[in-house]
Design a protein that fits this description.
The radius of gyration is 45 Å and the shape is elongated. Among the domains are: about 100 residues, conserved putative lor/sdh protein from methanococcus maripaludis s2 fold (Beta Barrel), CATH 2.40.420; about 90 residues, Elongation Factor Tu (Ef-tu), domain 3; about 70 residues, Helix hairpin bin (Helix Hairpins, Orthogonal Bundle), CATH 1.10.287. α3 runs antiparallel to α4. It is an alpha+beta fold.
């Protein structure tokens, strides 16, 4: 046999082997596609918005369901509030005289009694007030003498009726001036005035703690009766009891009553809840915000609540029975709320459908009242909703 003929047969054999391998590969691919198609036919077709799971998948995802039923919903009105001092136990101290602060006698946090000295102010108003009283007294005595003389002269026909009337007018004017000067002395607490040194002693109007002090030695203070702008120099108060004023919208006013339990939280103590009660409801609304003021009283033995703290106020109102679901059943999708409802089983799978709902979500209760979207007796997923959301 010739060499060329042998090489030709070898090439022919290679082509045959390649064709055979290609046929085998094609057959294998066709077989895989047939197997995949068979698998797809075996898997159930899931409708939109539903999730089908095998019992093993349900157990693995720890999915739990609960029936929709009427529940006692603990209704709560939530709003913002401001911590303030109880004004019946608070003293705001201003200076009635204009002058210079000479001495500070009370420090921050110091407890003082009613009438205890807080500061000493040197003021020319003191001398003026005492001087005005003495001058008015002297003028009144002079007016009395003049009136007596005029009456004697009138009785002797040596003075006219007009002279007597003018003297009477001067007497009444002097008497009124003396009364004005005395009233001014009373406003300046004449018992604490030293007319010689012209110093005035500020005293505490109540017993309590020095919570605020706005003066230092040497500064000038403006008097309350001088006509200028005045500044509060001391705030004396008690922190054992505190008030919280909350703003309530008109729609909620009828649901809140005197004595209703109130709970307050503040940013400083996020995990602590202060318990109190409502003790006053305003009889009018703010014309701008359309809200009414509600005052809540709280015991504050540790002095944790401080004046001017912003707070979140939750006022409990009457419980109501309503169709409700646990909070854990609600899935938040932006501004929408949905739940997963269990449907009858099919093809050996447990079915769950995503259903939009309208809820009355309020803080302070483990239950959420259902307005629309669910009926009593339906079973909703209360655990595992996140897993079902991922399967959609």
């Amino acid at each position: 046999m010739k060499p060329t003929s042998f090489r030709s047969r070898a090439r022919s054999f290679g082509r045959v082997a390649w064709v055979a391998a290609a046929l085998v590969g094609a057959a294998s691919q066709a077989s895989c596609k047939q197997s995949q198609a068979a698998g797809e036919v075996a898997s159930p077709t899931t409708p939109p918005g539903e999730v089908w799971l095998t019992p093993a998948q349900v157990a693995e995802a720890k999915i739990k369901v609960d029936a929709v039923a009427d529940q006692d919903v603990d209704d709560t009105v939530t709003t913002s509030g401001t911590v303030t001092l109880e004004d019946t136990m608070t003293g705001h101290v201003f200076s009635p005289v204009t002058g210079r602060v000479a001495t500070i006698l009370a420090e921050y946090g110091q407890r003082v009694k009613k009438g205890q000295a807080l500061a000493v102010i040197e003021s020319p108003d003191i001398g003026s007030a005492v001087s005005d009283t003495h001058k008015a007294g002297a003028d009144l005595i002079a007016a009395q003498h003049d009136l007596r003389r005029k009456k004697d002269l009138f009785d002797q026909h040596a003075a006219s009726q007009a002279d007597v009337e003018a003297s009477e007018d001067a007497y009444r004017s002097a008497k009124a001036e003396l009364e004005r000067a005395r009233q001014k002395q009373m406003l300046l607490h004449v018992g604490n005035v030293d007319a010689v040194t012209q110093t005035y002693t500020l005293t505490s109007p109540v017993e309590g703690e020095v919570l605020l002090r706005n003066i230092n030695p040497g500064i000038e203070v403006q008097g309350q009766y001088s006509g200028g702008a005045t500044q509060e120099l001391f705030t004396i108060g008690e922190l054992d009891k505190i008030w919280v004023f909350a703003d309530i919208y008109e729609v909620d006013m009828a649901r809140i009553h005197i004595g209703a339990p109130a709970a307050v939280t503040v940013l400083t103590y996020k995990d602590k809840v202060f318990q109190g009660k409502v003790d006053w409801i305003s009889g009018s609304l703010d014309p701008n915000t359309r809200t009414a003021k509600v005052r809540c009283t709280f015991d504050n033995p540790d002095h944790l609540l401080r004046p001017q703290m912003y707070s979140t106020v939750r006022i409990a109102v009457d419980q109501k029975s309503a169709l409700a679901i646990p909070k854990e059943a609600v899935v938040h999708l932006g501004e929408y709320r949905v739940v997963f409802v269990q449907l009858p089983d099919a093809d050996g799978h447990q079915r769950f459908e995503r259903v939009p709902v309208d809820l009355d979500e309020r803080e302070g209760s483990p239950w959420v009242a259902v307005k629309h979207g669910l009926d009593a007796g339906q079973k909703v997923v209360v655990a595992g909703s996140a897993y079902l959301s991922q399967r959609l």
